[in-house]
Structures are given as structure tokens and as C-alpha cells.
Amino acid sequence: METDFTIRYHRNSDNLHLKPAGCFDETAARVLTEALKRNIMGVDKIFVYTSELGQIESIGREKFHTALSELAPETVNIIFTGENGGNIIPKGMKIM
After folding, report:
1. Residues in CB range of 91: below 8 A, 6 or more apart
2. Residue 91: how many CA atoms within 13 Å on its side-chain side?
3. CATH code assigned to 6-95
């Protein structure tokens, strides 16, 4: 399935800022997880801005939760912000 999903990101000091946009399906979950994996080293906090996400598919959310649990998120604070944060956030994670 083709997706319209993109991620903009930047780092400043010890923080990583991710801005995903588009439909959050299984492919988007994989892309977001890979972006986290590639950039997690050397950061204290990761901010995921969710306001530009469109439809959140349940399979995307499930795949993201599973993959995120394998990243050992206890070593870094991952903070979800925006109106869609509550739709993709795994249990126990922070939302602002």
C-alpha cells in the first residue's frame, strides 16, 4: 500500500524533534520506528509532534507500540505532543 507519510526532524543540544505527517499506517509505523532507531543515540529527550498526522490505522498503532517497546525507551524520554498524541502513544509514555 502506498502511503503519504513523511517525517521532518532536527536535533538541538540533547533533544530530537520528530514531526510525522500523513496517514499513520503499518508503513508509517516502520518509518517512524526506523527514524527513532537511527537517531536515538546521544539524546536525552525525543519530542514527537503529532498534529500533522491524518488517519491513525489500528495496525500502524499496534506495530509502532511493539517496535517502540523493543527500543528500550526507558533510556530516553519520548514525549508525544499534539492532538493525535493520545491516538498513537503507548501506555506509560508522556503526552503534552
Report:
1. none
2. 2
3. 3.30.750.24
Distances (CA, A) of 49 to 2, 20, 71: 23, 7, 19
pLDDT (tens, 9 = 90+) of the chain, 96 residues, equals: 456 899 999 999 889 999 999 999 999 999 999 998 888 888 889 999 999 999 999 999 999 999 888 876 566 788 899 999 888 887 777 676
Distances, alpha carbon 90 to alpha carbons 10, 12, 42, 87, 94, in Å: 23, 25, 22, 9, 9
Residue 23 is placed in which grid cell?
496517514
57 within 8 A of 23, measured Cβ to Cβ: yes
Helices (H), the chain: 26-39, 58-69, 85-88
Decide the pairing of beta strands 94-95 and 45-49: unpaired
In the chain, where are the structural domains located?
Answer: 6-95
